[in-house]
Amino acid sequence: MSSQPSLTRRSALIDRVLGGIERVGNKLPDPFILFLLLFGITAVASTAMAWANVTVQLPGTDEITMVKGFFTAEGLTWFTQNIGVNYLGFPPLATVLPILLAVGVAEKSGLLAALIRKAFGSAPRWSLPYAVAFVGVVGSIMSDAAFVVIPPLAAMVFKAAGRHPVAGLLGGFAAVGAGYSTSLFVTSLDALFAGITTSVTQNLPNAGSAVTPVSNYFFNVASALVLIALAGFIIDRILEPRLGRQGIAREEILDDDAVLVPTVMNTRLTDTENRGLFWAFVAGVVVAGVILIGVLLPESPWRNEDGEFLPRSPLLSSIVFIVFAMFVIPGLVYGKITGSIARGSDVPRVMGQAIKDMSGFLVLAFILGQFIALFNFSGIGSWLAVAGAGGLESIGLTGFSAVVAFVLLASLLNLFIISGSAMWTLMAAVFVPLFVLLGYEPAFIQGAFRVGDSATQVLTPLNPYMLVLLTMLRKYEPQAGLGTIIARMLPFAVTFWLAWVAVLSVFFFFDLPMGPGNGIMIPQQ
Predict the structure, then answer these.
(1) What's the distance, CA 34 to chain centroid?
(2) Which residues cross the membrane (predicted)?
(3) pTM (2 decimals)?
(4) Which segments within 218-277 are labelled E, that is strand?
C-alpha cells in the first residue's frame, strides 16, 4: 500500500485543470519556431494596417503616427540594415550575459553551494518557501537582474534542504515576476513611475497631491507582505506537492551525458570550505565598502546632475556591474582558497561553462530580439494600448468597478507590452486625467496600475526572462516547454491578482493613504 496520502478532490481538480493547460501549452511549437511565427504574423498585420492607413495618436501629443508595415520599402530596408542590431540590442542580453559570467565563477568555484549549505543547512525546511518568497518579492530592488540571479539560487536552497529544486526555481521566478512592481523598500521603479505620473499631472488643474517616489509606499508594503505570504504558501502547498504527484523526481542533470544523481546535499562544511567562506565574505564586504564610498562622495560621478540618485543616475544604471562584482570577486577568493580555481586559465573556463549552459537562450534571443524590434518599429504596441484605453473610456464605468476594469486592461496589455515604464507612459497619459476628472488621486491610479503591471507578466511568452527560465528548467526536465511554465505559474498569477486587487479594495473602501501625503480621492476645495 502506498504511503503517499490520497488525493483530495480539490487537488485532483487542480491537477486536471493545470495538466490540461500544460498539455495544450506544450503543443505549441518550439519557442524559436513560435516566435518566428509571431514575427510573421506581426509582419503581415503591420503591413495590412499600414496599407489601411491605420494611425495612432499618442496621448499628450498632437502628432499622429502611422503604423509601419514590414512588407514595405521602409520596413524591409529597416530589417535588412538592423538584423544584427536587433539581436545585440535585445535588452535582456545586456543583463543576462554579464551576470551569467559572474554567477558562473561563483557557482563553479563552489561558493554558492557552500554559502547556501551554511545559511540554510540548519534552517527549518518549512521556512524555505517563505524565505524564497521574501527574497523574490524584495529582489526587485536589483531590477531585471533579479530574474537571472534569484531563481537558480532558490533551486540550490531547496536542493540543499532535500526539497524539490524545481519548486525553488519556479517559485523564485514567480515571486520576482508577479511581485515586480512592489517591495518593502523604495526602488528605482517607484521614482520612474512617479516621474511619468508627474509629467502627466503638471498641466492638469486640481490634480491632487504631488506624486513622489514614496507616494505608493504604504500600499507597496501591505502588498509585498501579502504577496510574500501567498507565494510561500503556493510554493509549499500547491507547486511542490503537484511536482511530486506528477512523479517528477528530485534530480539534477550534472553533465553533458545527462547522468542523474540525487539532490540532497551534505550540509556540513570542511575547514577549508569554512575558511574560503570567511575570506569570500571579507572580499564581499571590501567590494561593497569601496562601492559605497565611491557613491557617497559629494562629487561622486555616480550621482545625477542634481547630485541625487533618483529617479535616474549612473548608480542605478550600474546595477549589473554591482551584481557582477559581488559574485566574481568573492567567487575568485573562495576558489583560490579551496583550490577549485587554481590557475588564471580556470576563470575563462568556468565562465565559458556558464555561457554554454545558457546557449539555448542565446539562440532564442536572436528571433525574440527580431520580434520585439518589429513590434516596436511597427507601432502596433502603441496602437493596442491607445485602442484599449479608448474602449475602456467609452464604457463609462465609475466607482471602484472602473478601477478594477483599469487593472484588468493593464493586465491584458501586460501580455504584449512587457516594459512597465513604456506601458505606464501610454496609459497614464489617458487614464490619469480621466480618473482625476472622476476625483481620484493620481497616486492611487498609479498604485492600481502596479497590480496589472506585475501579476500577468509571468504568463506571457513575450517576457524574455521566461525563456531564460525555460533554459534553466530544462536542466531538470529536458522535455519541459512553455506550457509547463505557464501551467505552473498560473496559480501564482491568479492568486496574486485577486489578492492584490483585494488589498487595493481595502485601501479604497477604508480610505487609507497610499503613501505619505497621498490618499484615494482628491480633497474637495
Answers:
(1) 21
(2) 32-52, 128-150, 217-235, 277-297, 317-337, 358-377, 397-417, 424-443, 455-473, 485-510
(3) 0.73
(4) 251-253, 260-262
